[in-house]
Amino acid sequence: xxxxxxERLAPDPCGLxxxxxxxxxxxxxxxxxxxxxxxxxxxxxxAATGYGLGVFLHYLWKRLDLGTQFRIGAxxxxxxxVVIMVLTIAWLIVSNLFALRWQQEVAQLTGAQSYTVLExxxxxxxxxxxxxxxxxxxxxxxAAADWILRRTPEKWDGRIRYGVAWVSISxxxxxxxxxxxxxxxxxxxxRVFSVRNTEIRADLHRPTDPGRSGSPASLNDWEGLxxxxxxxxxxxxxxxxxxxxxxxxxREPIRVYAGxxxxxxxAERAERVVAELExxxxxxxxxxxxxxxxxxxxVNPTFAQSVELLFDGDTAIAAAQYSYLPxxxxxxxxxEEIEEAGRALITTVVAxxxxxxxxxxxxxxxxxxxxxxxxxxxxxAGTRDIASSVDGALWVGPVNSNRIxxxxxxxxxxxxxxxxxxxxxxxxxxxxxxxxxIESMDTSGWGPRRILYVQHPTDPVVWWSPSLxxxxxxxxxxxxxxxxxxxxxxxxxxxxxxxxVDLPNAANVPNGHGHNYGQAVMDGFAAITGDPxxxxxxxxxxxxxxxxxxxGQGPEKEIGVSATEGDG
Length: 568
Fold this sequence. Notes:
This protein is 51% helix and 7% strand. With 568 residues, the protein is α/β, with parallel strands linked by helices.
């Protein structure tokens, strides 16, 4: 009795072998260096997938009776199973030591911290625990299917009974995965982050300059701007600060913002933004930028400061909040909601701008980073629509599922790589990997209306896609970019898990890698303006000025490297 119970609970030997193999493969390089915690998650998921595949193959082997000539006794089988378990555990520990070299290679390419042997020895215990939990979950699902099977009428055909059992389990599983889990996560996120949205950073104070939303002269109250709206209008140098750094005369920069409390709909908040632009005299500025925000309403402070440094404060930057959820949760919640919010803001501001005298109005540009690119693209049917509406657009770290981005990459000129595609000869749209490529770019064939995508080879936000589960992407068949490991290669399921766990670490690397773009936002914006003042010498000085300007402004992103770390 005890022995039979043990055999039922004992792991499948074929599953162990394939699970151990996929565990080891999950240790190979991906886009970014991983902490031991996220490495354990990738290994656990991969091992459980391999185990399931091994169990299925073993089942087919026995079902088709392919091993009749290899019959062995029960005692020998138990010994073999124990040996396989011991060797598997030993192999998992040893493979972690080999993996350290790969992680150090990735860390060196991205300028990140490499991990020690002791840190990586933590991977195996947590990965094994996750592996066992997932196997237990699978066995629980099988037991539930068996429970349903036993309660179907015995007079039914066996295949029908099995079908009813597993279809029932599949329907319930899909409902849980598609609705219950995301809904629960989003619901918890809404309760947590709605509170955080009201938390204003202690070092920020209500602005007194009437050119900023939230000031006494503003239509939009300070508290209603939310956590990231107050950061947007409360940070950044004033005219005196700009003059001190650049040595040139400057104007007081305009920053306008509408928080969630400033309208019940995206359209109402967009109208409040336009009212603020009108109130602050934005029509008289040299440059107007519409910044599409991320889920929490975040606008990259490095970008905002860059624009004001380049144009000596003769600028207006407009943004609006559409959610208080972090980008990952907002993406789960509603992709359409993001596009609708961007459409409402951009079309409303552009309509106001077009009503201004054509020979006496600012140049207008669009900016979006991460989920902000999704919101920004959502306002347009395609690149022609963008070029006919505004003077240019800068999209940084675009999300892989963006409609326009995917169309451009899919229809790229023959021979150009997916990691840096060429579309239409580069007349309107261009793609670059970093600041160095922006500086060396030949702009002679680039038209007056410019769209620029900046995307690092190691940014998982750009390259993560569900299709990685079963299909090798072009960018992994091509030569690696400037900071991606040449040792990385595609593996079914495993690569998907690897890049999935890279996502939480996307901002935890130095600027210039992963999802941290640093000075590339300044260089990219200078490039789309086509302004002859912004030559290499000017931009080099401006980069030094940007570093000085960002000191003391606090963390650049919601998570990750602060503005005072890394390169700036």
